[in-house]
């Protein structure tokens, strides 16, 4: 469970479970934008 829905909280999940070469389709939640800048999504 993610206690705080923020990019900071979601980033470890992305790093642990999603390959950097994967294509990720999101619901366009604005909290993902910082992750996109880091080339994670």
Quaternary organisation of the protein chains = single chain
Q: Which whole number gives the mean pLDDT? A: 80
Helix share of residues? 25-40%
Number of helices, counting only DSSP H or I runs of 4 residues or more: 2
Describe the global form. globular
Strand content: under 5%
Count of beta strands: 0
Give the C-alpha Rg: 10 Å
**Largest beta-sheet characterization:** none
Helix and strand succession?
HH
- The overall number of domains is 1
Helix/sheet category: mainly alpha
Distance between the termini: 21 Å
**Low-confidence segments:** none
Detailed description of the structure:
The chain has 41 residues and is an all-alpha fold. It has one domain (7-37). It contains two helices and no strands. It has helices at 7-17, 33-37. The chain starts with 6 loop residues before the first helix and ends with a helix. The mean pLDDT is 80.
Question: What key attributes describe this structure?
Answer:
single chain, 41 residues, mainly alpha, 39% helix
